[in-house]
Specification:
The protein is mostly helical and 661 residues long. Helix content is 73%, strand content 0%.
Amino acid sequence: MTFLFLTSQIITNREPLRPFKENYLNPNNPYSQIDRLYYQGRFSEASNLYEKELQRAYTDEQKFRVLSGIAWSYIGINRFLEAGDFFEKASVLAKTPEQQLEIKIGLAFVWFFHRKFDRAIQNIELAKSLYITNKEGLAELNFLEGAIYWESGDRTKAEQKFNEVFNNYPNTIWGQKSFLVLARAYLQSGEQEKAIEYLNKVIEKAKDEEVVGQASLILYDIYMNSNRVDDAIEALTKVIDNAPNSEISKQAEARIAQIAEQYRSRLITNENLLRKSRTAAIFILYNPGIRAYQNKDYFTAKPLLEKFIEFYPDDTLAQKVAILLSAIYIDEKDYRSAINVLKKVNLNNLDRDNQELAFYFLANAYLGISDFSNSANYYSKLLNSQKFSKEAEQKLITILNQYPEYVNYLPSNHPLYSRISAIASLKSGDTISAINNLERYLINNPNDSIVLLSIIDLGYKKKDYNRTLKYAKQYISKGYKSDRDIILYMAGVSAYYLNYPGEALEYWDELLANYPNSQFYDKALSVSKMLLSDKPELFSLNIKSPALLKEKEYQKIYDLYKRGSYNEVINLLANDNSDQALLLKAQSYLKMKDYQNAYINASKITKETPEIAFIKAEALLGMNKLKDAYNYYKKAAESQNPQIQSVSQARIQQLEARGIR
């Protein structure tokens, strides 16, 4: 037994179930904007917002509205078990009869979907006792009660309840639909005569044009399937009489035209004949199905074409039918049905255009069910198609970028094959293969800066400095600006380790000259200073960066210092108050035994290291400030320089021997 009533009539139609719509949509209701989403059938959005509001709800009224809102939204997205939990939470806060009624109706729906029919009926009865003045509400509750009885297997009570709804609430939508739904239920369960009885009651007594039209079309289908053509025509005329300008009326007119055509051709219209007579099947199923499809009336086309391919799966026309059906299924996002119907025919027997169309639908259908391997396979078959090649390539590349392991679906001569193979290699942890594939790709795509960057980065991480330097030179020579500072740094490091110190300095110098805000600036400056200190002859290069030019000047001044030209050092650095200049001046004053200026310059240096502490200590000692000198010698003793450490420790012992601590 299926959930015929609520699933088909309410949930799948996205019709909101929550009562008291007008109250909830009242602008004075603080949650009216969220409630509006709910009544628009946007249940997921509503539930998300209700859940956020739950954290901000403080009063019992606020908590009730939010909890019940979450519960009703969960019903709309088929989360029935959780909906029940939230209704139970809300029930504790239900103070008014309206709130209690809302909870009872909600729990009735929840228990219905859990097939706890007795409890569902119990909640319906309690709800009806609270809803005695609202006919639309009572009609709905009785309608639901009838549905529950039917699902529970008690058809007698179900029929009694639907009769009650029809007779007592004829002007409500539930009264109008009650016999129609009951007829459909009997029809679904195979009790055709009972279905006909109630469909005729609908046509005779119902006032809603849509309901009458639906009943008449269902009756038409029953009669046509029973070969009662005259009765079928009579049913269709009632559709036209009751709703002459409706969409249903147009459908009826088209079907009458079909029947008339069948009469003119003296065709037998029962299913037995359709299976035996291909001509009849073409006339009754295939031709109108094709016309409906061409008119984008997929609702009509789909069952006709499904019947034809069911009866004649090996027919030559079935190939076209399969393609058309697959298009309908994909439009409905029923991807598995699209795949299954195309599997029924031999695609190799199709002409080229239809074969490409079939491959296209299969590729999209497999993509729809996340079967990326088969999707990539069929997209690859379309790479030479005039109509689909561009889209197929785009989608194939999209799949392969995410799932590069399917790269073999891409022809090996395809321009992107090596690049995708590289991604696959990286994903599997094979960096060497990735680099090799990227190099092959670069041969035909020398201006792909992204791939060039990737090779440099991978080579650097593998400490393959020859490869890193080779491609870094290409990147730099092409004038690429993106990440150029990074490439200059890695090129310098690679050149350094390959024993090309001059080349390394040139790369770092360009970085220092043009990228002062680079994250690699300090690193480049540090290694450049280290290199120049080790190889001062490199100062003869054409240095351009201000930082290294200044370093070059300091080198000349340091040479003067080493030659003992202390006054000249001090004069040259008179207006320079950088740490490096202050250090040289402090050391020069110390050498000249001008202890006061030595201490003053050392004190201006921004960062005090053990080495700076030593200069201060020596200056203070020279000024006979023994206690202060002692303290600085203690700091200087922490130096990593063995000479400074040794002298400091000796001075400490001497001062301590004199009682200085």
